[in-house]
Amino acid sequence: MWVIGTCVLALAIAWLGHWVYRWRNPKCNGVLPPGSLGLPLIGETLQLMVPGDSLDLVPFLKDRIQRYGTTFRTSVAGRAIIVSADPKFCHFVLQQHGKLFESWALDTFAKLFAQEGKASLNVTNVHKYIRGTVLKHFGMEALKERLLPLMEEVSQATITSWLGKESIDVKYATGTMAIEFSAKLLFSHDPTQSSKKLGDLYSSFIQGLLSIPLNIPGTIYHKCLKDRRKALSIIRRTVKDRLSSHGRLHDDFLCHVMQDMSKEEFLTEDFLVQLIFGLLFVTFDSVSTTLTLALMFLEENPRALQEITDEHESIIKQREISKSPITWKEYKSMPFTLQVIHESLRLGNISPGLFRRTKTDVEWNGYTIPAHWGVLIATSALHLNPETYKDHLTFNPWRWKEYDSDVMLKNFMPFGSGMKQCAGAEYTRALLSMFLHILVTKYRWTNVKKGNIRRNPILSLGDGLHIKIMERQK
């Protein structure tokens, strides 16, 4: 028996060794970019999660760019991917979308956003429909015709509610504002009708995005899934009510999409729920993190605060009626505000990057990226590249006067790039601008408490940024 046992053990060791070898040396019809796939199954996920304690790149990216160059291979959450911080290659990937590359989500993201299996196959097919519908409800024309004054109103109401309080957690409070405002536009959500706040659920959800996908009680990922289900149930309840209401109309995004269900096969109940969930997610984190950083930077930079205040006061002074609602022309006359927003987005790097997948073998700079491999455009590395941005860790909104459109196209991608730019980009910029407009013209704030910056790779401020709001003395 011991002979048989020894043979079985030897075979198992040989098989394991072969498996590890194949993992570390995947098939490729050429030369792979340099790098390492790490340990089988978990890859280099643990190294990626090692946090940094500044606005700079996480140690994972800094170390590998120094070791392998701006394009390298790795494995995250069980999937082999190519990571690139090369502006030319990143631009090439985006330009070749639909030809050599396609939309893709890392497996952890796919599970959290229900994009596995059949649903993932539809991402490219439905993109045109989703983009068109989102632009119709949240794009430039919608902003011009009706959304700007509503954004001004919700910003005013939010900041007014902060008066008299000793401390406000900016990220939580602005995230709640953004998600409740967007949820009302998307599916006429009334936060008073739910025991759980969507803002609370999304805050928890975001923490699990890049965690190891172990659905075990006590893990971040388990809580993330649990709160995701709660958020989905709030949305699903509304969708079900609408489907059973026999065509009763509502003036919102959901009503418009449901009217197309007879024409588009992919518009199922599940799809509608996941679509609204995803749109709320994008709004929540982009608005809350950017405003948190903007307020922190402005409070620390009196010159920038004075310039943005002067810009908005000038807009009010030029009105015939000072208290009239903001207009599209006024919104488009806020160049310094846009520079502050751009600089906050650049330093914040809300998203870890843009995910794509190769449709076929792709040749680049002497290397071959095999078909069906993931590609991560490391936007954080582009945004913090000292060769592009002098004093790259310094808040300097004036730097944006120097850059032409070509530099921005290839080196600044907070909302994607070109035709693949997020359809809600202008909506987000407008909401950020309206909030800052109300804040700097009517109020002042002081920092009460500021947490330490951590990036793993999503940026956080530890205990957050807490401020005290006061009405401005005229």
On the 0 to 100 scale, the average pLDDT is 85
The CATH homology group name of the domain at 122-349 and 384-471: Cytochrome P450
User: What about the largest sheet?
Assistant: 5 strands, mixed
Strand content: 5-15%
Number of strands: 12
Rg measurement, Å: 24 Å
Can you tell me the CATH topology of the domain at 122-349 and 384-471?
Cytochrome p450
**Given the structure, what is the number of helices?**
19
| Approximate helicity band | 40-55%
Q: Overview of this structure, please?
A:
The protein has helices at 2-24, 45-48, 59-68, 87-95, 107-112, 118-121, 123-138, 140-162, 170-187, 198-207, 220-243, 253-258, 269-300, 302-317, 328-331, 335-348, 379-383, 405-411, 425-442; strands at 71-76, 79-84, 101-103, 168-169, 354-358, 362-364, 367-369, 374-377, 443-450, 454-455, 459-460, 465-471. It has 474 residues and is α+β, with helices and mostly antiparallel strands. The protein has a domain at 122-349 and 384-471: Cytochrome P450 (Cytochrome p450), CATH 1.10.630. The strands form 4 sheets. Strands 1-2-8-5-3 form a 5-stranded mixed β-sheet. A 3-stranded antiparallel β-sheet has the order 4-12-9. A hairpin with a 3-residue loop joins strand 10 and strand 11. The model is unreliable at 14-21 and 115-121 (pLDDT under 50). It is found in: Membrane. Keywords: Heme, Iron, Membrane, Metal-binding, Monooxygenase, Oxidoreductase, Transmembrane, Transmembrane helix.
